[in-house]
TrEMBL record:
InterPro entries: Alkaline_phosphatase_core_sf, Sulfatase, Sulfatase_CS, Sulfatase_N. Residues 1-23 form the signal peptide. One of its GO terms (molecular function) is arylsulfatase activity. Belongs to the sulfatase family. It comes from Tautonia sociabilis. It comes from the Bacteria. PROSITE patterns: SULFATASE_1. Residues 139-169, 273-311 are annotated as: Disordered. This is N-acetylgalactosamine-6-sulfatase. Residues 286-298 have a biased composition (Basic and acidic residues). Keywords: Calcium, Hydrolase, Metal-binding, Signal. Pfam families: Sulfatase. Residues 30-353 form the Sulfatase N-terminal domain.
Length: 463
């Protein structure tokens, strides 16, 4: 595919990196599955304490691996957090600073090094299914598409399933529009993943499978069988649709895990599950328009402050569960802070690929955290969310401490998350020295990140 707006990562960089793969490792590396939900809140799963929503497959999955209770998306909105998962770089640094409208110039450039590119060079076969949302000109020759970032097979939409999760019409498979489909998005997406696992990949090669569902992002549409799970508790259409939508997602996830079992792949595959940001909306529905799409935004932050688009905890803290049989002890709960950009570094660590040394990699390997050990970070955890609340535009976390800054970096709040995960009490006056040091570091880090990326964001008054 010809790409006029991006510069390809030099092949020599990849070859040099792969020549440094640690010697002495024998045998086939583990397969990798990254399963990403859309707008799933930190409190939306049964295993994260939701009192009503039924998620038996994810609950079982959590009992088989490690459940992180302080996991974060790399951004408070979707496209940027996805770019960080693939590159290990904070979004403004890699250029995907905002959610990407259709036709927009922002895209994930091929000068970025992605996980599937590295794994392909190591002999992996690669597949992406589901939401893409890393370019504005989807399936067009002037911006990179999934295959330009290392995917052998892809089945995707630019942003949301349209007209809704039910019977979508906007999927593209390997550059060819698929046309109208029958069914619900997560089931269709997982169905394609299963078809690839069964019929399209080489069984002689390890694989990287990326499954990015649309559920439970608007426009929500839920199969009657999943709405029926909640009919004895409420007759509110919005609640039935939202809660059922999470169960619909859970059921699709369960199908994929069952397929790994069926093919005898579960023990040789590391599976990572997480969400791209916190839940949409007010959480109270839309009383003026019951049954409308806005009435279906019933996601839970688990009591945390803020929601999607905020850099308070409710906008960025998300579920994250990892299963790696033989390495992660079943039923582990880890309170080590981790972030979406860590997924890149973690996969490199797991398969034995050194991190690129020609650019800043913000993420760090989560492998120590799989057993509750701390992670050593060269770059603090950092967030800058486009179109966020003016009062929570940037944030940085070090240890238990988090500083949150406003849009022009003139006002800041300081929180101790170990004592106050709900961010109810500003400690800037009671801890003036820590407040000063963290504020200064945040300002320096913000300038470094903005200086590293392309100039797209500078033209956007809402940045």
């Amino acid at each position: 595919m010809s790409i006029g707006s991006a510069t390809a990562a030099p092949v020599v960089i990849l070859l040099a990196m792969l020549s440094a793969v640690r010697a002495g490792d024998e045998g086939r590396p583990p397969n990798v599955v990254v399963f990403l939900a859309d707008d799933l809140g930190w409190g939306d799963l049964g295993c994260y304490g939701h009192p009503v929503i039924q998620t038996p497959h994810l609950d079982r999955f959590a009992s088989q691996g490690v459940r992180f209770i302080q996991a974060y998306a790399a951004n408070g909105v979707c496209s940027p957090s996805r770019s960080a998962i693939l590159t290990g770089r904070t979004p403004y640094r890699n250029g995907v600073y905002r959610w990407i409208p259709e036709g927009h110039e922002v895209h994930l450039r091929t000068s970025e090094i992605t996980t599937p590119e590295l794994l392909k060079a190591l002999g992996f076969e690669t597949c992406h299914v589901g939401k893409w949302h890393l370019n504005g000109r989807f399936n067009a020759p002037d911006q990179p598409q999934p295959d330009d970032h290392g995917f052998d097979h892809w089945f995707a939409t630019q942003n949301n399933a349209a007209p809704s999760h039910k019977d979508p019409t906007n999927f593209v498979r390997n550059g060819e529009p698929v046309g109208p489909l029958e069914g619900y998005s997560s089931s269709l997406v997982v169905g394609e993943a299963i078809r690839w696992l069964r019929d399209l990949r080489s069984k002689d090669a390890p694989f990287y499978l990326q499954v990015w569902t649309h559920e439970p992002h608007l426009p929500i549409e839920t199969a009657p069988e999943f709405q029926a799970l909640y009919e004895d508790q409420t007759d509110e259409p919005g609640v039935l649709q939202h809660h059922g939508n999470v169960s619909q997602l859970d059921h699709a996830f369960g199908r994929l895990m069952a397929e790994l079992d069926r093919q005898g792949l579960a023990d040789s595959t590391i599976v990572l599950f997480t969400s791209d940001n916190g839940p949409e909306g007010t959480g109270a529905g839309d009383p003026e328009h019951p049954g409308s799409q806005r009435d279906r935004t019933r996601g839970s932050t688990g009591g945390l402050r803020g929601r999607k688009r905020d850099d308070f905890e409710g906008g960025i803290r998300v579920p994250m569960i990892v299963r790696w049989p033989g390495t992660i002890a079943p039923g582990t709960v880890s309170d080590v802070p981790v972030i979406g950009s860590d997924i890149f570094a973690t996969i490199c660590d797991v398969v034995g690929i050194p991190l690129p040394d020609d650019r800043v990699i913000d993420g760090a390997s989560m492998v120590p955290a799989f057993s509750g050990e701390p992670i050593e970070r060269s770059v603090p955890m950092f967030w800058r969310t486009h179109i966020s609340s003016p009062d929570s535009r940037v944030a940085m976390r070090e240890g238990d401490w988090k500083v949150v800054g406003n849009v022009d970096l003139t006002r800041f709040l300081l929180f101790n998350l170990a004592e106050d995960p709900g961010e109810t009490t500003d400690l800037s006056e009671s801890h003036p020295e820590r407040f000063r040091e963290m504020t200064e570091r945040l300002i320096r880090l913000n300038a470094s990140v903005l200086g590293d990326g392309p100039d797209w964001w500078k033209k956007d008054a809402s940045h």
